[in-house]
């Protein structure tokens, strides 16, 4: 269940004060998930990396727990070592596929909680993953599962 559903009398500002800002203070970022719907695959993204001068990170098409693990892993990496470059391919690790970094053209169109925190001007990178056969969403052979994996920006080669 979502926070807003569990707290029907509360506002978006209440959500920022009670949930988002405390998590960012404690961890440096938080992961916001958006459940999949009939016409849209799941979306998850970080909020808080902007405070450190870094782009937010996003992933589509994964279950909530898996996307949270992935984004927390890469957020720690980004805070330690800096953000990856658009077009960079991050090699596969145990239990994960390879990822290609795609900048979001208009992050404010997709990352509502980040918009509530930072307004319309912030940067975001999508971690686009290959399927189990090494195909990417832009490959005709890609098999992204139910709902697929929408790419929210224009792919750039490194």
How would you describe what is shown here?
InterPro entries: DUF4262. With 158 residues, this protein is α+β, with helices and mostly antiparallel strands. It has one domain (3-129). It is built from 4 helices and 6 strands. The chain has helices at 3-6, 12-27, 64-81, 112-118, and strands at residues 30-34, 43-47, 56-60, 89-90, 99-103, 124-129. A 6-stranded mixed β-sheet has the order 1-2-3-6-5-4, with helices on both faces. Strand 1 and strand 2 (43-47) form a beta hairpin. The termini are far apart. The mean pLDDT is 89.
Overall pLDDT level: 89
| Oligomeric state of shown chains | single chain
Largest sheet: 6 strands, mixed
Which class best fits the helix and strand makeup? alpha+beta
Features:
DUF4262 domain-containing protein, DUF4262, 4 helices, globular, alpha+beta, six-stranded mixed β-sheet, 158 residues, 6 strands
Describe the structure concisely for a colleague.
This protein is α+β, with helices and mostly antiparallel strands and 158 residues long.
Layout of strands and helices, then pairs:
Elements (H helix, E strand, L loop, with lengths): L2 H4 L5 H16 L2 E5 L8 E5 L8 E5 L3 H18 L7 E2 L8 E5 L8 H7 L5 E6 L29
Parallel strand pairs: 3-6
Antiparallel strand pairs: 1-2, 2-3, 4-5, 5-6
């Amino acid at each position: 269940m979502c926070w807003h559903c569990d707290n029907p009398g509360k506002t978006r500002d209440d959500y920022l004060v009670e949930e988002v800002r405390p998590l960012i203070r404690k961890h440096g970022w938080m992961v916001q998930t958006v459940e999949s719907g009939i016409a849209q695959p799941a979306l998850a993204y970080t909020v808080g990396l902007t405070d450190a001068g870094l782009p937010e990170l996003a992933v589509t098409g994964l279950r909530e727990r898996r996307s949270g693990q992935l984004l927390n892993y890469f957020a720690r990496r980004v805070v330690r070592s800096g953000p990856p470059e658009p077009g960079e391919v991050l090699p596969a690790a145990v239990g994960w596929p390879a990822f290609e970094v795609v900048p979001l053209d208009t992050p404010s169109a997709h990352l509502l909680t980040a918009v509530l925190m930072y307004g319309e001007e912030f940067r975001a990178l999508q971690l686009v993953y290959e399927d189990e056969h090494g195909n990417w969403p832009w490959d005709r052979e890609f098999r992204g599962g139910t709902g697929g994996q929408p790419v929210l920006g224009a792919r750039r080669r490194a």
